[in-house]
Amino acid sequence: MLGSKAWEPTAAHKELVQRLKDPTLLKSQSFIGGSWVDASDEERIDVHDPATGETLASLSHCKGSETRAAIAEASSVFKSWAAKTGKERSQILRKWFELVRDNQEDITTLMTLECGKPLAQSKGEFESGISTMEWCAEEAKRVDGDVICTPAASKRFLVVRQPVGVVGAITPWNFPFSMITRKVSPALAAGCTVVLKPSELTPLTALALAELADRAGMPRGVLNIVVGDAKSIGDELVKSDDVRKIAFTGSTRVGKLLMAGSAATMKKVSMELGGNAPFIVFQDADLAQAAAAVTTSSYRNAGQTCICTNRVFVHPPASRTLSLMVQESVHDDFVKELVEAVQKLRVGAGMDAATTHGPLIQHSAVETVEAKVQDAISKGATVAVGGKRPEYDASHPLSKGSFYEPTVLTGMLRATIDMRCFREEMFGPVTPVFKFSTDEEAIQMANTTEYGLAAYFYTKDLARAWKTAEALEFGMVGVNEVAITSDVAPFGGVKHSGQGREESKYALDGFLDMKTVCMGLGY
Ligand SMILES: NC(=O)c1ccc[n+]([C@@H]2O[C@H](COP(=O)([O-])OP(=O)(O)OC[C@H]3O[C@@H](n4cnc5c(N)ncnc54)[C@H](O)[C@@H]3O)[C@@H](O)[C@H]2O)c1
Ligand SMILES: O=CCCC(=O)O
């Protein structure tokens, strides 16, 4: 949110400074060419704590000219960074990883305060992010090429892999740490230089990372962070011919804009976009495990995770036959287990150790969730639990927070797939439960979405597991498992959920070009 030109530190800001072991990690400027710089105009951007609505910090608000400066810095040092040996880059990245690891407490505090997620979840994200940093620091030493068997005795073919150039990285607010490490670490390991635009809602974590990169001895200009106006910064990154790759995580809408814009300069793109994850509970599933898994997956980060369970399908629908009536209880038993688990979630501020469920990122997100829930109710859904904002009186410290209660919607028939909660990414703490009658129908309903990021199902039948995993049109499938994220496994989607993969042994591939060298032997 744009703030006033004059910034008077708030009580929340002073409290944050007190909380940090190293308050110099709290920055209010952008990091360009190894220096902390103010924007050329005086406009500021305020960062809020979504649990209280209080202003945590006010930052200089950059636009096009600062972005051009950052691109120029990244371009000017690209050749020297690329020319370092993998081992030299690895040593700097390793040092950065160590400094970040040593500052876990401060970084997770910043993450929780600016994005709202419970501290335990910030720690989980932190573990995921530093694993990526460590992995990529190691991989910097392994940017190998290839020798191809030749069809002609007089020549040899080799493949060398070279960094693509300057990378424009654009990241969202819901994972203010790990979405950065997933792009910046492999890009730097591959020998690229980076201009990063973090979300204007959660820039503090990103800026702390820049400070630690500087302390780690990252050469000036190799990593630049520009905070400010999304469109101006994005437009500069996209139109610049010096930027050779856009690495984006965010909404499908913005991803498509960036991809279309990148065509003019024929940039590489990697797009980690929205999801609409189905979760199928087959009749042979362990219901208690499935209900616990839906609770974990659907309400993680208050439902604001790209791989959150968005639609649950439970076998079977109402039937008059005795055998199916017995099976009908699978649905009812599952809903009972789920509702009981959801009732145990504790809504509150992320810094409170008892909290399992934090606020949404801002009030407009709560309004969008409310509209989707109302849409479902108007089409026949029943609220089994939640379905509203928590009722805090005006004197309550969280009364200005952007909270929505964890919600389960039931009573959904196949006829209700026109509901917004079926078609759209909810990005809030709401789980709609639908019924299905055959495996084919469940798979078909699961695939009835333009998205294709993550999908989950629970079954004990091996044949059904193989068949379903192969039939689901998603980039990642969890079978009797929802914790599918790992630094060792490729992460990414198909269809409108994007292209390219982050993490794993493939992490650096998107930041490298292949060059074929054909060597004539002269005979
Ligand atoms: N697939 C994944 O790995 C993954 C991971 C996390 C989040 N997401 C998706 O991200 C979305 C939530 O994040 P969000 O609300 O921050 O998304 P968003 O698309 O609104 O914003 C993402 C980033 O793009 C920037 N941006 C916005 N408009 C821009 C423009 N015109 N030009 C350049 N940059 C622009 C924002 O400032 C932010 O930094 C959800 O759809 C979620 O599923 C996907
Ligand atoms: O929202 C996207 C990131 C999810 C994850 O890392 O598990």
- End-to-end Cα distance, whole Å, is 68 Å
What Rg is obtained from the alpha carbons, in whole angstroms? 24 Å
Ligands bound to this protein structure: nicotinamide-adenine-dinucleotide, 4-oxobutanoic acid
Number of domains: 2
- Total number of helical segments? 15
Notes on the protein architecture:
With about 525 residues, this protein is α/β, with parallel strands linked by helices. It folds into two domains: about 10-275 and about 500-515, Aldehyde Dehydrogenase, Chain A, domain 1, CATH 3.40.605; about 275-485, Aldehyde Dehydrogenase, Chain A, domain 2 (3-Layer(aba) Sandwich). The protein is about 40% helix and about 20% strand. The protein is built from 15 helices and 21 strands. It has helices spanning about 10-20, 65-85, 85-100, 105-115, 120-140, 180-190, 205-215, 230-240, 250-260, 285-300, 320-345, 365-380, 420-425, 440-445, 460-470; strands spanning about 1-5, 30, 35, 45-50, 55-60, 145-150, 155-165, 165-170, 195, 225, 245-250, 270, 275-280, 310-315, 380-385, 405-410, 430-435, 455-460, 475-480, 500, 510-520. It has a seven-stranded mixed beta sheet with strand order 15-16-17-14-13-18-19, with helices on both faces. Strands 10-9-8-11-12-20 form a six-stranded mixed beta sheet, with helices on both faces. Helix 5 (about 120-140) packs parallel to helix 6. The longest helix is centred in the middle third of the chain and has 22 residues, at about 320-345. The protein is globular. The structure holds nicotinamide-adenine-dinucleotide and 4-oxobutanoic acid. The site of 4-oxobutanoic acid (SSN) has 8 residues, from loops. Nicotinamide-adenine-dinucleotide (NAD) binds near residues 174, 254 and 453.
